[in-house]
Amino acid sequence: MNALPQTSPLHFRKMQGCGNDFVVLDARTQPLSVAGAPARALADRRFGIGCDSVIVMEKTDGADLRMRVINADGSEAENCGNAARCVARLAAAETGKNRIRIRVVQGLLDCAVNADGSVSVDMGAPRLDWQEIPLAERMDTRRLDIKVGPIDAPVLHTPAAVSMGNPHCVFFVDDVTAHAIDRIGPMIEHHPLFPERTNVEFAQILSRTHIRLRVWERGVGITMACGTGACATLVAAQRRGLAERKATLTLDGGDLEIEWREADGHVIMTGPASESFHGIVDADLARLMHGAAP
């Protein structure tokens, strides 16, 4: 196997927030082409490093850095709350600052690293109009005309839609363990009502301040957690009168604290972020990302 020169290894960090895991690459000093086949290779849990998404840090104006989110299937996502917390932790350690601003496709995320090690992210205001999700046709985003199962006795029905910079479809259920998320998730992700596909949430209201949540992520599959999904779920629940404006969202990988702030309409997400390990990307794959011939 040919090796890259020792002067230019491509380092990575494996990070996670509530079990939602990422391969984080630094492209601030050298451009990287990651979308498509390189991301799929890195994300592969048997033949690659393994992750839900590949995160690329880039230089930008008006913020500490730009964050690109490449899903496990090689497609690019607009936003990722759990990844933002991870990247904010890295940037804070580099700069010594406890407040970090990250640019994503849909705008700016203001992050604060708290004294207890958690990270809070201002995810901005949710987008609630049908064209902002986007949907293929005009519809009340509180209750979409979607049914799963027999038409006269659907298993799931009337989900809510919210965009947190990326689209979400939230079903409220009596028991999140009672539904085949691996079967229903991809059906809804590719439903014709969602021209850009969608993330799919299954939310069980435990109380007005506690929601159990499982997620099918667009371009990834079932994940241990989804930060934007937790934000979208709290917003959807509050709009339906099912929850307060602040609640704990319990996902498979842990808890996120979500607040839909009344003062400015922004959603604030607080949760953990940590590094699992770090290493160097295989030379041939690194060469591909640098744009050289394999």
Commentary on this structure:
With 294 residues, the chain is α+β, with helices and mostly antiparallel strands. Helix content is 17%, strand content 36%. The protein is built from five helices and 19 strands. The strands form two sheets. The chain has a 17-stranded mixed beta sheet that branches. A two-stranded antiparallel ribbon has the order 9-10. The protein is globular, with a radius of gyration of 19 Å. Mean pLDDT is 94; it is low at 1-7.
Strand content: 35-45%
Rg (C-alpha, Å): 19 Å
**Tally of contiguous helical segments:** 5
Low-confidence spans: 1-7
Helical percentage: 10-25%
The class by helix and strand makeup works out as: alpha+beta
Through-space gap between termini? 11 Å
Shape: globular
Average residue pLDDT: 94
Number of strands: 19
User: How is the main sheet built?
Assistant: 17 strands, mixed
Order of helices and strands: EEHEEEHEEEEEEEHEEEHEEEEH
